[in-house]
Structure formats: C-alpha cells, structure tokens
Amino acid sequence: MPETTQLTAVDPTAWTCPVALRDHPRVVMGHGGGGALSAELVQHIFAPAFGGETLSQLGDSAAVSLGGVRMAFSTDSYVVRPLFFPGGSIGDLAVNGTVNDLAMSGARAAYLSCGFILEEGVEMSVVARVAETLGAAARRAGVEVVTGDTKVVESGHGDGVFINTAGIGLIPPGVDIRPQRVVPGDVVIVSGDIGVHGVAIMSVREGLEFGVEIESDCAALGGLVDAMLAVTQDLHVLRDPTRGGLGAALNEIAVASGTGVVIQEGDVPVPPAVANACAILGLDPLYVANEGKLVAFVPREHADAVLSAMRAHPLGANARVIGEAVAEHPGMVVARTGLGGTRVVDLPIGEQLPRIC
C-alpha cells in the first residue's frame, strides 16, 4: 500500500520562531542553531575573548598535542526536548554526539566527562533512566565515563535535565583531517539518509503523525570512521551534520577551505517519510539535523574504495557520492536540481527546529 501521511491536531500559536534579526541585541534561539547567528556569536564574542590558534580552526573537536601525544578534545551540551524520543534519548545524544565529534578528527574516543544540570522537581526515575541510557550508550561506543559533576537549578529555570559531556581520544599517526585540506576535485560522500533525527524529534514534540514512525539515527560513528581510515589515512575532512544539517556543514567546510562545493540535489539520500514531513512543514531536508551521519571530502583517487568500505559497514550501508569540491565560487555551496537548474545552498540564519540536540 502507498505510504499515507496524517497530521494530528497541533497548536501553531505555541510554536516559537528560532530566527531573529541579525543585529538583535539579546540572545535568541537562533544563536544556538548552528547557522549564521551561531557563527556570528562565536566570531564576534567567544573567539576574540578566548583567542588561540587551535580554537580558530573551529572544528568539531580540537586536535592538540600533549607530551608529544596527538589527541582530539571536544565538549558539547545537550538540551533536547523531549528527553526521550523514537530511536534514542538525551543520554544517547550526550555520548554519541561527543564520540562523533572526536571521530571527525580521526580519533577513537577513550574517555568522557559528564555534567548533569537538573531542574528542581524532576522525577528521580527520569534522572535514573537518563543515566542508564547514557551508561549503556558509552559501553556500546567503547568509551568510559571517568569524571562528572551535578548541579541543581530552581524549578522553572531548567527543562528537567541538561547534560554536558567532554571527551578525549588519540589521533593515529599520519591522520590529518581538517577542512583546510580540501582541494578542488575532492569527492563529497554522505554516509546515509539525512534529516531523520530532526523529523523524529519534531514528530513527538508537536504530536505529528506521518503514517510511519520515524526513529532518530542517533549512533556512534567511530567504527565507520575506522573502516574509512583502514582504506586510506588521506581523508581531507569529516563532519557530522548535526545542528543546521547537511547544508550548514557543507557551508562551513566551503568557507574554511576556500573552495566551492557543488552537490547533485537528486543524489542526496532523503527517505520518503522525511521528504513528506518536510513538505508538509515547509522545511528543507538539507537543513534538518542528523545524529548518526557524516559527510566526507575524499581525494578522488580514493573515493571508490572509501565508498565501498562505508557501504560494507552497517552505519554506511546507504552511503552515496553527492558532489565535489570545485575551484569556482569559493566559499559557496550550489545544488544542481533535477530540472537542470542550480540554487545556492546558503548557511541558514538560525535553525528550522530548535532544541533538537
């Protein structure tokens, strides 16, 4: 039977807009969305205040050396609502998100820290369930939680449970993965269907039904990256397209590398359920968040072998080539449409779906 799409009753007046004017004098939801507002916040406030050459790279994790050992170091905070959703929970996100940030530098995560910010009044059973899912996710990812912290805020000053995790992992000798290595001719590969996590969150948050349950793609990508590195250490850049989706990730890479990016819109894997949901809600799947996917820029001579290795791994079974880096229009991402035209894929201002990770 054909897939059906059904909407349940929702209250649009309760929705909030994550986008605001670029010169807004106060923090708005869009500043946490992974788009242009987030970039401006980092560029104009945090980067000048903190300084440092390593920070200026603005990767998913920082590649640092300590005592002659090269390692990746990353931190992230998780404020997703609801705490539990089809395919995962805030505990899964807290582990997988940080593990994946480390993996995007080629590092295999070794140790995590974990900070819980709890709202006064949240049920202990909820806290226990989150902790259990976090611990189980860490064991699946082969990483150990070795230190942590707990704070409690007054009722009405939180949203049940917020989590911060930081992680470290060793970078293998010879691995140098960063957007500055991208050159024209590099092949762009995405590891599978996009937009799944964001639509899964939206469906439960707003009580929407699309005829089939959409589950988050939340997963730890360390094993997939290991399989790719086994083919060649010469991977130019890896990025997990979380906030801001694939569109934001491609724009960040294009700007950092000074190259243009061209993608074939029809080659981008968007599952029918996500496409239907986005059509109904007026969303662009390119900007919807993912939590278990990566995008890779690979030298053309290694692309076929890397793609085969990805497809042989469970988390890369639907990997596809979607485009290439080009010398033209540096810093800009362009999509070629099925009608033979082109459109610019801009960096989003804020986020289509706030609070999704």
In short:
The chain is an alpha+beta fold and 357 residues long.
SS content category: alpha+beta
- Please, how many helices? 9
User: What is the makeup of the main sheet?
Assistant: 7 strands, mixed
The coarse overall form would be: globular
Strand content range: 15-25%
CATH class value of the largest domain: Alpha Beta
Strand order of the largest sheet: 9-11-8-12-10-13-14
Low-confidence stretches: 1-10, 12-21
Total of domains = 2
CATH architecture of the largest domain, by name, is Alpha-Beta Complex
Would you report the number of β strands?
Answer: 14
Portion in helices: 25-40%
Q: What gyration radius follows from the Cα positions, in whole Å?
A: 20 Å
CATH homologous superfamily grouping of the largest domain = PurM-like C-terminal domain
Pfam family, one: AIRS
Family: Belongs to the HypE family.
Protein name: Hydrogenase expression/formation protein HypE
Domain PurM-like C-terminal: 184-329
Describe this structure in words.
It is built from nine helices and 14 strands. It is of the alpha+beta class. The protein folds into two domains: 62-175, 60s Ribosomal Protein L30, Chain: A, CATH 3.30.1330.10; 179-344, Phosphoribosyl-aminoimidazole Synthetase, Chain A, domain 2. Strands 9-11-8-12-10-13-14 form a seven-stranded mixed beta sheet. It has a five-stranded mixed beta sheet with strand order 1-2-7-5-6, covered by helices on one side.
